[in-house]
Specification:
By secondary structure, this protein is α/β, with parallel strands linked by helices. The protein has a single domain, classed as Spore Coat Polysaccharide Biosynthesis Protein SpsA, Chain A (Alpha-Beta Complex). The chain contains 8 helices and 7 strands.
Length: 266
Amino acid sequence: MQSGDAPRLSVIAPAHDEADNLERLVAEVRAALDAVIPWELIVVDDASSDATREVLAPLARADPRVRPVRLATRSGQTAALVAGFGAAAAPLVATLDADLQCSPRDFPALLALLDDADLACGIRARRRDPWRRRAVSGMSNAIRRCLVAPRLRDLACPLRVFRVEALARVDACGVLFDGAHRWLPALFALAGLRVVQHPIAHHQRRAGVSKYTATGRAVPVARELLRVLAIAHRLRRDHRQFDPAVRPIPSLGLDRPGSSRKSRAT
């Protein structure tokens, strides 16, 4: 694929203090997708205090497919993703974390599954995290699956691909709350969309420091669970029908690729 082709896939990577991972991120996205689909990489700098901005600038100059977006204040991973969604120019969207514990190498397999789905996401079969984090995450995932989405095995895997119109339908449900990044497959399923999952590799973090602790996630996830249960109850009660083709999404500007951008590109 030529770098000048209009992108068919917008890859969105939130990044907070991930300067040491960014060159590898760009190289791995390029290696995974160059022969597969025209792409752009939107790295959303969530007000990093390290050299993230300085590292991104020459990467973007060297490859115009790399598009930095910087948030003025630290806003969290959901807000960073939403900023990326608003900047995306392609009809397909992919997400991953800039720490590269989930690799872009798995994107082609997920893209192939979109023929029969609105969202395809990974299942981290063998987690390469400390045992305490694996234990807390596994217990949290099991509870959430049991109460919200029993057919989905991994609700919080950051590696996902989906269609812009499917995201617009989810946003029309009013469910992209702070913390929604941990629930995206369940939120798509609750909106009546087709979700498939596929095993992917999980890797140890090679650079940088995790922004989360095992116990630090417990209270936010508990609050979010109550919110998602309320959303599920509301959607099942209302039996709403959505048509993203005629219902533009002002909050994200996702009614069509190339709509007005709300985030500041750097």
